[in-house]
Amino acid sequence: MKKLIVLFAAFIIGAASMNAQNAQWSVEAGYLGSKVSMSTNGVSASVDFNGFYAGVGYDIPISIESSVISTGLFWDYKCVDQAAGKVKANYLRVPVHYAYYIPASETARFFISAGPSINVGTFGSTSANKDYFDDDDDYDDKVFGKNALNRIHVQIGVAAGIVFSEKFKITLGYDYGVTKGMDYPVSNRINSLKIGVGYCF
């Protein structure tokens, strides 16, 4: 995992050195829906988290025409509220996407992008419904760690959207988990849907 983090950092630093003087910043926010999927011995289950994301995007032009490296730093908030209780989790997310722009009109451009993102859990909270558990149950209230959510997980994502007047952005994206989202001895991943808006400057 440490090697993976170093690789992400190398991508960002390398991209920033290509053409940083023409880079474009943006502020973005929107809905974040995540699904934690688990499977073992042919049995599968999933838990839906709802929340939002907000942060700063950074698009760096590269030598390929109409292309940029799209990265940034985003705060992801996820919450699930079920019969057993409530879980709230916060992450910092760094995407590294290749994005390609397609003219739509004199004042608008479509874009498509794809690439990995790394998610680092920061803090969270849990609250259990005591009526749901037997008196003999040992309830663990950790959000991140052993038998809980992994502190770090990686996703591969795609996104598409449109930019109006070089200022206003609408984005739809989906991220697929490629590493375990939870520290459980079963196959699991976190997939995420994002719908957001942004302002470029």
Features:
single chain; Porin; nine-stranded antiparallel β-sheet; mainly beta; 201 residues; elongated
Number of domains: 1
Q: Can you tell me the CATH architecture?
A: Beta Barrel
Q: What sequence of helices (H) and strands (E) makes up the elements?
A: HEEEEEEEEE
Show unreliable segments.
Answer: none
**Total strand segments:** 9
* Cα shape: elongated
Summed up, the helix count is: 1
- Alpha-carbon distance between the termini? 34 Å
Mean pLDDT level:
88
* Rg over C-alpha atoms, rounded to the nearest angstrom: 19 Å
Classify the helix fraction into a percent range: under 10%
- The CATH topology assignment is Porin
Strand content: over 45%
Q: Give the class from helix and strand content and strand pairing.
A: mainly beta
Give a description of the structure:
The chain has 201 residues and is mostly beta strands. It has one domain: Porin, CATH 2.40.160.20. The protein has one helix and nine strands. Strands 1, 2, 3, 4, 5, 6, 7, 8 and 9 form a nine-stranded antiparallel sheet that branches. It is elongated. The mean pLDDT is 88.
